[in-house]
Design brief:
Elements lengths: L2 E4 L2 E4 L5 E6 L4 E7 L3 H19 L3 H17 L1 H12 L3 H24 L3 E5 L4 E9 L2 E5 L7 H13 L2 E5 L6 H12 L7 E3 L4 H9 L5 E5 L2 H11 L5 E5 L5 E4 L5 H13 L11 E5 L3 H13 L19 H16 L3 E2 L18 E4 L6 H4 L6 E7 L2 H9 L3 E2 L1 E5 L3 H8 L6 E4 L14 E2 L2 E2 L4 H6 L2 E9 L1
Parallel strand pairs: 7-8, 7-10, 8-9, 10-11, 12-13, 12-18, 13-16, 15-16, 18-19
Antiparallel strand pairs: 1-2, 3-4, 5-6, 6-22, 11-21, 14-15, 17-20
Length: 474
């Protein structure tokens, strides 16, 4: 029987449904877990409500100490947590290690930020009028994270919520729960006040109840756009604040003056890292027609040399697709590519697929028409679609011609020129001649169907604060 973490205690889940937790690299069953009931969710929300008044008044120095304790706990358990993330999620071990470093950095960042962030502001106005601005914790928050980046997306939400003085009901993905359960143990060891942090291991039913609950003041959700729409609809009747970090179909633009070897490296990392299971994946390649033939030749050689890895000792392989459901979805898109007559760049015989596990080799399609489903829809797998352009104006128009607006990459020999192009792209985060670095101090989120609000940086903290202003005569 699995357990939830409620009111500072590990308590048995009371739901009727169970789920098998799978190692996607071997298809081995790691655990069978009982899922939370709506009554379990109610208990977690009650615990968070009871803890909120005292926690929200705790000094920022004390909150920072707790955040650093959590970071210390992650640091002390890096090796075990990385291996667990690899086994439960399917990503290569080196990617899991990067995730863990990012998580630690996020808790450290918010521990520092909250101690220097202006939470009060007194201003003198004409006629003796004064105003006092106080930033307060928004209240009880529901944090819902996906399966593709365990510990990372959790840190992005938990750290600023705790820093702001909010109490938490955290629902991680039920298909990759093992790293998050260990995170809860680390948070428990940090001895937060009882009820400030609660974890529910639940499915869609539990999540929906959590989102609809009138005593939850805010929902922060990361996942698919369609589910994000459902979250928004369910949150609306109680006027919940929402932060939604959703899907993407991001472009990578390669200009004629780009370093082609560098461009190939950034193309590969942008679409095949985490087996393409990234909302930020740059899955639409736009390349200047003057260099397209040479670039695609280099890209083919480099991609066909990639390995698919089933063991944590493999060096820089492409990992497994995290769930069988997602594996089958990607396979469906590859069938659509055949139906649409798309032109493959790669020789699939170049790849050795492990005997077990949900592995899919990289796929690259050239001259993909803009009407193609693969060009327009988020696949969430190792699939790249390519088009060429004649002019930069055309490239910008093609890049922006999509329902999403999460991210973009520009490869150019002139960074200043890249900045000019970036100012015309509809994207929340744009990389110029670099891999997809996301710093805790930056900002993350997108335009259009890619979501609402921003995570990380000061914006991430503001997500969990409300303004209260007092006006009076001095």
């Amino acid at each position: 029987m699995s357990q939830n973490y409620i009111q500072g205690q590990w308590v048995d889940a009371s739901g009727q449904n169970t789920i098998q937790v799978i190692n996607p690299t071997t298809e081995e069953v790691l655990a069978e877990m009982q899922l939370a009931s709506v009554q379990d969710v109610d208990q977690a929300i009650l615990a968070a409500r009871q803890a909120l008044p005292n926690w929200s008044k705790t000094s920022v120095d004390v909150r920072a100490q707790y955040l650093n304790k959590i970071a210390d706990g992650l640091e002390a358990n890096k090796a075990d947590l990385s291996l667990l993330s690899h086994r439960n999620n399917g990503k290569p071990l080196y990617e899991a290690e990067i995730d863990l470093e990012d998580s630690i950095a996020c808790f450290r960042y918010y521990a520092d930020l909250i101690q220097r962030y202006p939470l009060q502001n007194l201003q003198q106005h004409d006629n003796g009028i004064q105003t006092y601005l106080e930033k307060r914790a928004v209240g009880v928050v529901a944090l819902i994270t996906p399966w593709n980046f365990p510990l990372v997306t959790s840190a992005w939400k938990i750290a600023p919520a705790l820093a702001a003085g909010c109490s938490i009901v955290f629902k991680p993905s039920e298909v990759v729960p093992l790293p998050e359960l260990e995170l809860a143990k680390i948070i428990d060891a940090a001895q937060l006040p009882v009820g400030v942090f609660n974890l529910i291991l639940g499915d869609t039913t539990a999540a929906q109840h959590l989102v609809q609950h009138p005593q939850v003041q805010k929902v922060s959700f990361t996942g698919s756009t369609q589910v994000g729409i459902n979250v928004m609809q369910n949150a609306a009747p109680s006027m919940k604040r929402t932060t939604l970090e959703l899907g993407g179909k991001s472009p990578i633009l390669v200009l004629a003056d780009a370093n082609l070897d560098d461009a190939v490296e950034k193309i590969i990392s942008g679409v095949f890292y985490n087996a393409g299971q990234m909302c930020s994946a740059t899955t639409r390649l736009l390349v200047d027609e003057q260099i397209a033939e040479e670039l695609l030749s280099k890209l083919r050689t480099a991609t066909e040399a990639m390995l698919l890895g089933a063991a944590p000792s493999d060096q820089y392989p492409i990992g497994a697709i995290t769930t069988q459901k997602q594996y089958l979805k990607i396979k469906e898109y590859l069938d659509i590519a055949q139906q649409e007559g798309l032109q493959p760049l790669l020789d699939q015989a170049a790849f050795q697929i492990p005997e077990h596990g949900y592995f899919i080799a990289p796929h690259i399609f050239t001259n993909v028409p803009s009407s193609s489903r693969l060009w327009n829809e988020e696949i969430f797998g190792p699939v790249l679609c390519c088009q060429t352009f004649k002019t930069e104006a055309q490239a910008i128009e093609m890049a922006n011609d999509n329902d999403y607006g999460l991210a973009a990459t520009i490869m150019t020999g002139d960074v200043e020129h890249g900045q000019q192009i970036a100012s015309n792209l509809i994207a929340g985060h744009i990389w110029i001649n670099t891999i997809q670095i996301i710093l805790p101090s930056s900002s993350w989120g997108g335009f259009k169907m890619s979501g609402i609000g921003r995570e990380l940086g000061e914006s991430g903290l503001e997500n969990y604060l409300e303004n209260s202003i007092r006006t009076y005569l001095a």
